[in-house]
Amino acid sequence: MTTGTKPLRADAARNRDRLLAAAEQVFAERGLDAPLEEIARRAGVSIGTLYNHFRTRDDLFDAIFPARMAVLDAAAAKAVADPDAWAGFAAFTETLFALHAEDRGLNDALAQRVPLSPGVVEACHRCFRHIEDLVARAKQSGQLRDDFEVADYAALIWAMSQIIRESAGVAPQAWRRSLAFFLDGLRSGAAHPLPVPALTAKQLAAIMAAPPD
User: What domain of life does the UniProt record list for this protein's source (predicted)?
Assistant: First the structure.
């Protein structure tokens, strides 16, 4: 393994790999503002070793973010190839928010909840270019309401990211019900069965009583 043109020693390469694995876990669990000290602790190295490999938080996240975005790129390619434009649009949207639910760091990035590095910003822009294509296809097919715009999709991301954050600890699948409502509101025809039940009174009370992050 190399950094730039200089090969890493075997022990340094192992440390870097451990840091990347730990960063994936910690950012997914706690978001992009997670303490770097926690990443170093899980990797079993000092904070100094972390900074030797990654000078900034952005450098660390840039090293792990492309793999997550590659999943969205693949989902977008599959969606665009779907002969049913609405099915492709809906499938991509569900995949996007499933990744949000799995990875709080990705949630932070796509909802632009924290300042992002240029590399991550470009990856997010690429995601929105996929969304533009999917929205255009679904509108041209007559299945997506004509007044829905990509900016409306951005608002959907902001709303769903917050729903996912607020309910994850109590009802981690609750976002699917909200998304089903949103999607049904974007197309004509009969409503479809909802994938998960509504929050119970106990779950709702627990979410509302939780202190803010």
Answer: Bacteria
The CATH fold of domain 65-193: Tetracycline Repressor; domain 2 (1.10.357)
Secondary structure of residue 2 in the 3-state scheme: strand
Sorted by where each begins, the domain ranges of the chain are 2-55, 65-193
Burial of 35 (0-12, 13-18, 19+ CB in 10 A): exposed
Higher-pLDDT residue of 209 and 187 is 187
* Torsion of the alpha carbons at 23, 65, 96 and 84, rounded to the nearest 10: -150
Amino acid sitting at position 150: V
Per-residue pLDDT for 114 more than 60? yes
Instruction: For domain 2-55, give the CATH number.
Output: 1.10.10.60
Query: Which H, E and C letters describe 135-204, residue by residue?
Result: HHHHHHCCCCCCCCCHHHHHHHHHHHHHHHHHHCCCCCCHHHHHHHHHHHHCCCCCCCCCCCCCCCHHHH
Q: Measured in Å, how far apart are the chain's first and last C-alpha atoms?
A: 38
What's CA 162's distance to the chain center, in Å? 12
CB 46 within 8 A of CB 30: no
